[in-house]
Each structure stands twice: as C-alpha cells, then as structure tokens.
Write a structure and sequence with these properties.
- Helix 2 runs antiparallel to helix 3 and helix 3 packs antiparallel against helix 4.
- The radius of gyration is 29 Å and the shape is flat.
- The protein has 15 helices and twelve strands.
- The protein folds into three domains: 134 residues, no CATH class; 95 residues, 3-Layer(aba) Sandwich (Rossmann fold), CATH 3.40.50.720; 195 residues, no CATH class.
- The model has no long low-confidence stretch (mean pLDDT 83).
- It is 47% helix and 13% strand.
- It has a four-stranded parallel beta sheet with strand order 2-1-3-4, with helices on both faces. The chain has a two-stranded antiparallel sheet with strand order 5-6. A two-stranded antiparallel ribbon has the order 7-8.
- It is of the alpha/beta class.
Length: 470
C-alpha cells in the first residue's frame, strides 16, 4: 500500500549510494596529501596511486552490507528515524568489513585516507537521504498522486487504521471513508459512506485504489464474502486481523516457512534497538567489572565476618517475556530469612502486600549499609553478562507478586529487565515497584539509548543521596 516501497526505488537508492561511496573514496585520495604536514602523519607522494580494484571493493562491500541490513527495504524504513538508524548501523558494519578486506589484500592503503573515506561516505549517504525526505514530504503537500483508501469497518480497528493513514499524509495515502453495517455508526459518523453491501458501487464511484478490511472477529465470515466480491476489481485488498487488541504490548507479522504468523508477544524493542542496547550493556559492564571485582571481594569478606554463611543470595525472578532466571545479590539478611517471611509480612491500606520496609529485623548490620548504598546489586553485573538482565530496564519481579498482576502491568516484561530503571530514580523503595508499574510503562513506551544514559547518570546521583533505599 505504501508508495515508498518499490523495486525501482530500491535500485535507484543502490545506484546513488554506490556513486556516493565511489565519490567519497575519490575525494579521500585527492584530499589525503593535504595532511602530509601534520605531525605523526606519513608523507604520501601526490598523486596517490590507488588500485582500481579498491574502488570496486569499496562499492561492493558498502552496497552489499547495506542491502543485507535492510537499508533498501522501504517497508522497514517508512519513518526517517528508522531509515537513518539502520543506515548508521549498516555504515559502521560496512566500514569495519571493508577495513578487514583491505587488511587481507591491500594493506598499503593509508589509514588516514581510509578514515577520511569512511566519514565522507557516511556523511554523503546520510545527508542525501535527509534532503530526499524533505523533498518527499514537500511533494506530498503539493498534490502528488495519491492512493485512495476505503476502510471496511468503522470500529476500533478501522479507526486505528484511519489514524495511521492520516498521520503520514506524505506517504501518498488518502482516506476516503468507511463502510459499516451498524446504523448508529452511519448516523453518527459522516465518514461512513454506506453499508457493506454497497462496496462495489462505492469502489467504482470513488475511484478506490486500496480496500482495507478492518472488521471484528465475529464478522470474519463476512470478510470471506467481501474478498469474493472484490476479486475481479483492479484494486489492492488488505485484511487487518482483529487480534491486535490481544497483544501484550504490540503485534508483529513474521514469516515462518512461507506462512505469515502474528506475534502477539512481540517485544517493545526492534532488532536494531536490541542490538545497540546489548552492545552498550556489554561495553559498560566490561569497563565496570575490574574495579567492581575488587570492591565485591571486600564486600564478600565483610558479609562473612558480620554473619558467616553464603555471601551471594540467588533468587528466582521473572525476566523479559516472563522467563524465570536466577538473579544474584549480596546477602543482606541473616541466614534463613526466607523462613521468617510470614513473621514480618505487612499490607498497605488496600490490602496489598509490602515485602520491603525500613525496619525489617532480618537485615544484618552490613546489610543495612549495602542496601542504603545499593552495593548489594553489584553481582547483577554477571546477570548482565549472561544476558538475563540489562543495565537499565524495569526491575525483575518476584513470581508470586507477578501472579497478582493485572494484564496491563505485564507490559513491563516486553523489554529486558534491568539493574536500575525509571522507577529506581523516582522513589526506589519508597515506591514498591509492583504498586507503581506506571513508571516502568513510561520506560517501555519511551525507550532510547539516550534515556538509558540519563537513567544511569541519575542513578549515581540518587545512590549518593541515599534516596528511598532500605
């Protein structure tokens, strides 16, 4: 349906990108001698003789990597933020890949020249897409040829489809109206053009290009009849399955051996966001582990001296998508504290359980300090390395508390669970997480790498001030 997806357009993109990559390498070769006067830069004679095969390899590697990483898939890059994100990732992979190829073949290529080429290539590919997007949006507002869309069904699903169509007018889609059998909807909504029986005359009279079937599940037999009525008309027919309302957070269609499947447990993060988040977690964790290991050794010794027994406390928690795993913490309570849980259980004014409070008699002396400083969470760096957790995300919850969750609260499990998160920097123990899931849902709906960085830095400040921890 969307006009941005076109084989010819993808080929045009590939040709333009190839030309720009070639241009970047040519200019890098011409510009490189200008840097001969810099300190620690090898002097190269002018003109630089670059083998013709290097130009071919540059174009093939960059174009191939971007094709493999779906940079030319218009359906995955409808929004500019998605396209530029995918381009940035692909350019980084292409840059490293070509460097590896040159290392195995033409090692004499100047490193400075290669850096100049890489930065230029990415800049050209980035900027021409931004310019094209601006022109594309401008054309969408000055009368570009559009596809006229008729929606069958004026219910919740149909209204959602209309909302998305009208949200991006520059994609060349024009909402014409609805068809619906409900007399009340026809009377109350001027966009309803008639009943479902009028589909053929409306399609012909309104010059419809696309028909979207957005009927509720109870009307699926009617869907079959409508498809049969429209099969001989030169239009596109689309079906929106009325199962999206059953999704935990969002639904995605995936292909499995040629069979389209609807994933009702699709994660909140796309593949690129997940990759960047994992890389970020690994880099930061590897940097933190050496100094943290020394500190953890001292903490372990202090725990054992204060109350001999196991140093690490392993507890079953629910991770992403409700998977069970063992979360590590330093032990802050006396040995056998779990058997005393029934003696200290409390409830709030509404009868909801509170399992963490400031005067818990089971907490050891060193345990109070570890909790106040959040140092008891340090072993969870190993959970991050194993992939059970992330540095930032909703906290992994106890299974018996999750069993009492309402359906909307389970959305917090659509992202990797973290050591710290939005809830921790807005109340920590003063706001039990099972009673304040809204904070976690804000993180799910607004995730970005920038937000992760903000939460990490804010966590440091919260810990230093010892706010709300016990």
């Amino acid at each position: 349906m969307l006009r941005r997806f076109s084989v010819n357009l993808a080929i045009l993109y590939i040709l333009i990108d190839a030309a720009l990559v070639l241009l970047a390498l040519v200019l890098a070769v011409r510009v490189r001698p200008l840097f001969n006067s810099l300190e620690h830069v090898q002097v190269l004679e002018e003109p630089i003789q670059m083998p013709a095969l290097v130009y071919v390899l540059a174009v093939l590697v960059w174009s191939g990597v971007m094709a493999l990483l779906s940079v030319y898939d218009g359906r995955r890059n409808l929004l500019i933020v998605d396209e530029l994100t995918n381009l940035t990732l692909a350019a980084g992979v292409a840059f490293v890949s070509l460097a590896g190829v040159l290392y195995l073949s033409y090692r004499e290529v100047s490193r400075l020249l290669y850096l100049l080429f890489g930065f230029q290539a990415f800049f050209y590919l980035f900027i021409w897409r931004v310019i094209l997007r601006l022109l594309y949006q401008w054309r969408g507002h000055v009368g570009m040829q559009t596809r006229r869309v008729l929606i069958i069904g004026a219910g919740v699903v149909g209204n959602k489809v209309k909302e998305q169509l009208t949200k991006f007018p520059y994609f060349g889609l024009e909402f014409v109206g609805y068809l619906d059998d409900d007399p009340q909807k026809r009377a109350a909504n001027e966009d309803v053009l008639g009943s479902l029986d009028q589909v053929r005359p409306v399609v012909g009279g309104q010059s419809i290009d696309d028909v979207v079937l957005a009927l509720p599940r109870r009307a699926y037999e009617r869907v079959n009849q409508l498809i049969a009525e429209l099969h001989d008309l030169p239009i596109k027919v689309w079906v929106v399955p009325d199962y999206f309302s059953l999704a935990l957070y969002q639904a995605e269609v995936e292909d499995f051996a040629g069979i389209p499947l609807l994933d009702l447990r699709a994660p909140a993060l796309n593949d690129y966001q997940r990759l960047l988040k994992r890389i970020f977690d690994l880099i930061v964790t590897v940097i933190l582990l050496p100094p943290a290991a020394i500190l953890m050794g001292l903490i372990a010794l202090a725990i054992w001296i204060d109350d001999p027994g196991p140093v690490i406390f392993r507890q079953t928690r629910l991770g992403e998508n409700g998977r069970l795993f063992k979360m590590y913490k330093f032990r802050t309570m006396i040995v056998g504290a779990d058997e005393m849980q029934h003696l200290v259980e409390r409830e709030d004014d509404q009868g909801r359980p509170i399992h963490k409070f400031p005067d818990d008699p089971r907490v050891t002396r060193i345990g109070w300090f570890l909790r106040r400083t959040s140092l008891d969470e340090l072993p969870q760096l190993f959970n991050v390395l194993r992939g059970n957790m992330s540095l930032v995300g909703p906290r992994p919850e106890l299974p018996h508390l999750v069993a009492k969750y309402q359906r909307w609260q389970r959305v917090r499990f659509t992202v990797p669970q973290g050591i710290t998160g939005w809830w921790q920097i807005h109340g920590r123990s003063d706001k039990p997480m099972h009673l304040h899931t809204e904070d976690d849902l804000y993180y799910v709906g607004n995730y970005s790498l920038r937000l992760d960085l903000y939460i990490l830095f804010k966590t440091i400040w919260v810990i230093l001030r010892r706010e709300g921890a016990y």
